[in-house]
């Protein structure tokens, strides 16, 4: 009898996973200013109930995918030790994570799990500035996670900090391996970008000031989506969003030439067999290498639709060496694209995205992003100059220990 009830419960949760995009799409019907609407008590109850159902569905989905992933990984010394290091790393940074999680779940400025497509992971989180007096610039952010553990909430710290500077942030979720392979990931991200470009005005965003940003694996996926869209646009094909609509692309600690990275990832614990499964075989590595795609751009039209591209990388990054960004910028410049590389001496793969923002105070990468986005807005630049220093979220001793134990 217990097994019958368990089976029925699992079936119910599966049905939630299948039906959730449909239910949420009904919920997300276009309206004038959803960000200013106040929910009644019954509406808040229904919204909470929907979120609980979605959380249960996602828990079931992630658990089943975890077991499937374990069957791919088998017993491997490198990935097991890195998994343990990841657990310790997360515990050391927990004081900061808890504060960010409180903001993520309880702030009225966060719109969680906005549906942008028909897949269970086709959702995005919106981080909205408190001041809604005019249209705001928008950053579309694609999180990293080795193509396996990416999740939209990983961008909540960036979302919170940019929203404090009057910038809307849309953090995209997408299918991870083994739920999907690289073509699914690129398709999801492209679909998410299209949703933001076509709907952000309803949330107070400026469609003429949209920036695309990716970190680590997210930088690779978003760069693939950008290059693919530029090629389609230059050929006159029908597109759901235009690469030329983006003001700039920011790539943080990304890898853009896959054939050059296979052996490096294998040594780091992302085994060749797994990586090739993610990338749909060795024959597809060039197809999903933005650097190689850039070198193949023999059309001036394709180059002209590319936005300004800025890559950021730490020189002590051992997960993806900084030379990966260097050679991508060189390839882009060789075909006439506008591209630049900013290196941070001694910074690791996680320093730029986690430790430095959690440290508070001055952050070179963050300041560069905000200054670039607000470059044409004198009032915003003046507010940035007078903004108080960002507060520290984690004690320095824990940050130093986390840096030493980091598996990335």
Structure write-up:
- By secondary structure, this protein is an alpha/beta fold.
- It is built from 16 helices and eight strands.
- Strands 1-2-4-3-5-6-7-8 form an eight-stranded mixed beta sheet, sandwiched between helices.
- β1 and β2 form a beta hairpin.
- α6 crosses α7.
- It is globular, with a radius of gyration of 21 Å.
Radius of gyration: 21 Å
Order of helices and strands: HHHHEEEHEHEHEHHHHEHEHHHH
List low-pLDDT spans: 1-41
Give the structural class: alpha/beta
Beta content comes to: 5-15%
Spatial ordering of strands, largest sheet: 1-2-4-3-5-6-7-8
Output mean pLDDT: 85
How many strands? 8
How would you briefly describe this protein structure?
The chain is α/β, with parallel strands linked by helices and 408 residues long. 50% of the residues lie in helices and 13% in strands.
